[in-house]
Design a protein that fits this description.
Elements lengths: L4 E5 L7 H9 L4 E5 L2 H6 L1 H5 L7 E4 L2 E4 L1 H12 L6 H27 L1 H25 L14 H16 L8 H11 L2 H7 L2 H5 L9
This protein binds S-[N-(ferrocenylmethyl)carbamoylmethyl]-glutathione (6SG).
Length: about 210
């Protein structure tokens, strides 16, 4: 059903990219409604948004806000929420771990980049280790973060790992399972095509030019 999904967001990876990775890998078509700083600063769109923020997501006439709720909605639509209740709970747990990491990353990028980057990178192994541990506990780390199938959390985790590989290119050197995981996911045919697309390559990572 082409045209069913619309992502309304700034022209950055930001809190839209995990959704884009999911949609691309699942072979879904979607429309990008790009909101520039100029449009946003007019204020009308902000006023119309439930929490005054983007991303906004439309699934037909169903309008959604909050990036993690958008991921979960798509997970329910496309069978990306685990194979049973226990896996779904584990996925919630891991997604909260990714969210904690994203909040720290966003704080660094938008509030403390120059003064905080060295300390942030020093603390990074402690942030990444839980995900290496999770992989090790799931079939020796040869597959996905939870269970035997890809889930919405894999796309969110992949995005946060992509961001950190730009911030600190060697950050996975001592995490072989995570390094292999990124390579494996990056090579899934539909993800690979998306990652190599002009739209992805030309899209800035963050809204302030820092990365
Ligand atoms: C910013 O924080 O892109 N939304 C952001 N900012 C604008 O007026 N809990 C929810 C969620 O998970 C958090 C939403 C999130 O969905 S994301 C938002 O709406 C506001 O609050 C980071 C991002 N930043 C790009 C940006 C926005 C404002 C300054 C830089 C676009 C570029 C320049 C102006 C507008 Fe810009």
């Amino acid at each position: 059903m082409p045209g069913k999904y619309t992502l309304v967001y700034f022209p950055v990876r930001g809190r839209g990219e995990a959704t884009r990775l999911l949609l691309a890998d699942q072979g879904q078509q979607w429309t990008e409604d790009v909101v520039t700083g100029e449009i946003w600063q007019k204020g009308d769109l902000k006023k119309s948004c439930l929490f005054g923020q983007l991303p906004k997501f439309q699934d037909g006439d169903f309008v959604l806000y909050q990036s993690n709720a958008i991921l979960r909605h798509l997970a329910r639509n496309h069978g990306l929420y685990g194979e049973n209740a226990r896996e779904a709970t584990l996925l919630d747990m891991v997604n909260d771990g990714v969210e904690d990491m994203r909040l720290k990353y966003v704080r660094l990028i938008y509030q403390n980049y120059d003064a905080g980057k060295a300390e942030y990178i020093e603390a990074l192994p402690g942030q990444l280790r839980p995900f290496e541990t999770l992989l090790a506990q799931n079939d020796g780390g040869k597959g996905f973060i939870v269970g035997k199938k890809i889930s919405f959390v894999d796309y969110n985790l992949l995005d946060i790992l992509h961001l950190h590989l730009v911030l600190a290119p060697d950050c996975l050197a001592s995490f072989p399972l995570l390094a292999g995981y990124v390579q494996r996911l990056n090579n899934r045919p539909q993800l690979k095509a998306y990652l190599e697309s002009d739209a992805r390559k030309q899209r800035p990572i963050n809204g302030n030019g820092k990365q």
